[in-house]
Amino acid sequence: MLDEAPGHLFLEYESEDLATFLQMAMLNGWGGYVLTDADYVNAFFSHDEYVDFIAKHDANLSDVREKFAPPQPK
Predict the structure, then answer these.
(1) Where would you tag: which of 21, 24, 41, 73 has the fewest CB atoms within 10 A of its CB?
(2) In what order do the strands lie in the sheet with 51-54?
């Protein structure tokens, strides 16, 4: 039960399962964390409809900033 073990471990080959699990959680208005074994960049998604990315080193967030940056006018 979730109250007994409040977490799930997804292995590398289960990335599609992880995506489905996150989609289900977000569509139901749940919050949670995505924590990686490498602790490179982690994420928190809120029931208030926002996502925070967390990293020990600011430089690790450069890829996240690039992916979520607004498009530049041409």
Answers:
(1) 73
(2) 32-34, 42-45, 51-54
Contact 18, 33 (CB under 8 A): no
How far CA 56 is from CA of 20, 32, 66, in Å, comes to: 27, 19, 18
Q: Which residue type is seen at 37?
A: D
Cα–Cα dist 24/16, whole Å: 12
- Averaged pLDDT for residues 41-45: 94
pLDDT value at position 1? Answer: 54
* Secondary structure letter of residue 61 according to DSSP: G
Write phi, then psi, for 24 (nearest 5 degrees).
Answer: -60, -45
In this structure, what are the phi and psi dihedrals at residue 58, rounded to the nearest 5 degrees? -55, -35
> How far apart are the two ends of the chain, measured CA to CA in Å?
52
